[in-house]
Automatic annotation (TrEMBL):
PROSITE patterns: HD. Residues 51-152 form the HD domain. SMART domains: HDc. This is HD domain-containing protein. Gene3D superfamilies: Hypothetical protein af1432. InterPro entries: HD/PDEase_dom, HD_domain.
Amino acid sequence: MTATFTDPLWRIPVRLNPVEVGLLRTEPLRRLHFVAHGGASTVSTLQSYSRLEHTLGVLALAAHFRPDDELLRVAALLHDIGHLPLSHTFEGLSGLDHHAIGLQLLRTDPIRPVLEKHGFRTEAVTAALDKHPRSPLTNRSGLLHLDHLDSFVRSGRAAGRLDTDPAVLLSRLDIRDAAVSADRGTAASLVHLICGEARLHTSWDSVGPASVVRRLACRLLDSTSLTPARLARMTDPQLWSAFDACARTEPESAMVRYELHRLRVRTGSAPRDRTAWNYSLRKIYSSAPLVEGQRLETAAPELAAELDALRALPTTFHAWWS
């Protein structure tokens, strides 16, 4: 059985392999349709597309650059199945790690039987997902890979930062040494998107709602029988319903959705004021593209300097309701 879809961002037509059709019918993949890729910022921005839309975009890129690499394509489909509700918002909370959860899901029903039915060893898929340095999907080189390429471009479109037609952009890209490579002008466009994404993550639009929702999750875990493991497998609508059903979280849950203008955010730790709370970013993503196969520092040092300047962005904040 085969099916075809065309990714709406990249406009890449993809003929799905039987294993891909089977995986897309499983609960872990379907669930991603109800998890916002932009996390808590979905309440304050137009970053409303789903984690499944991003997943299909990464599959489309894998199919474009490596059409016959079935293992890479399967890994592209499965790379985000462990994500928590609202994506990265709760990462690290109670030890939750979406990478570890995803690898565990690979080894159990319903994913494992689909893989085995079509001749894929779970160990091979696990290895492909474990940030292998030679993988163009999620390598550890610090260079731009397909997962982040789709994230930066898709987010840039939602935020109005994308100044190049994605299909044209794609025609100027290549994979070299397991990293995304571009001509100098296209690399500059990619760096613009990467910097814009970093500034979004350190802005009120992202920090404010994420800080509120994260502390609401802590209250929910403290006040109800909900376990971290159960929280990790919720969808976004299920999480909001849980907030609304708990007396300790319902008022602020409503405020963050309908009175967000009252939220204040400042850099640095909170003063000795019980009405404020602290929030820290775990990381700022700044993986760099290659320029004609060369590292940015060598081929375009001014672009490398733009990415290096992201290190000065604040990562510690405090917030309060006015």
